[in-house]
Amino acid sequence: MDEVEPHAPPARRSAEPPRRARRLLGLRPRRHGRVDLGSRLLRDQLWTLALLALLILLLLVALTATTRAPVQEWPAWGYRTLLGVFSFGVLGAIFSAARSLKGSSLRARIHAQVLDERVTLSRAVLGALPGLAAHAFLQSKVLNLGDADSSKAFAIAFIAGFSERLVLKVAETFAGQKAK
């Protein structure tokens, strides 16, 4: 027969903090060898953005490789310039989306992260719209930055894709001047 010592220390359950402490601290219990779902969703979002950026970069390489004319000589409303503006607007939005994933998604709940994946991809694709709008502002001299060539249009498109609020501010300023 096994005798139990009356003063033996209690057996340790596990190294994890109690459930209430984990909930208060926002900790999730780790599964044995499994990747946390939130980390996997974040990784998937970053991979989606990286693949989209790679496709856009390949498009830019194809645009420049299929012509001998320098970028500065491309017509302002030619298909190469418009595809370049579109591409740089999307690249700006991808960069902005990747930066915003860094902090907020790590603290978000799983259902919010799943929604964020769709929003992140939409932000990246819709970054072309502010880029095209900024190109139109540049060509119409609403945005006066000197001589408007394609390389300047690409830089403005990237900035506009990165910060669509900038394009809205220019549009609101122009609308306010017209109303006066």
Description:
With 180 residues, the protein is mostly helical. It is built from seven helices and no strands. The protein has helices at 19-25, 37-65, 79-107, 110-126, 128-139, 150-162, 164-179. The model has no long low-confidence stretch (mean pLDDT 75).
Mean pLDDT: 75
Distance between the first and last residues' Cα: 98 Å
Q: What shape does the CA trace take?
A: flat
Q: Total number of helical segments?
A: 7
Strands, total number = 0
Strand content: under 5%
Helix-strand pattern: HHHHHHH
pLDDT < 50 runs, ≥5 residues? none
Structural class of the helix and strand makeup? mainly alpha
**Could you describe the largest sheet, including whether it forms a barrel?**
none
Helix content: 55-70%
What is the radius of gyration?
26 Å
Summarize the structure.
With 180 residues, the protein is mainly α. It has helices at residues 19-25, 37-65, 79-107, 110-126, 128-139, 150-162, 164-179.
Task: Provide the fold topology.
Blueprint: H1 19-25, H2 37-65, H3 79-107, H4 110-126, H5 128-139, H6 150-162, H7 164-179
Question: Key features?
Answer:
mainly alpha; 180 residues; 7 helices
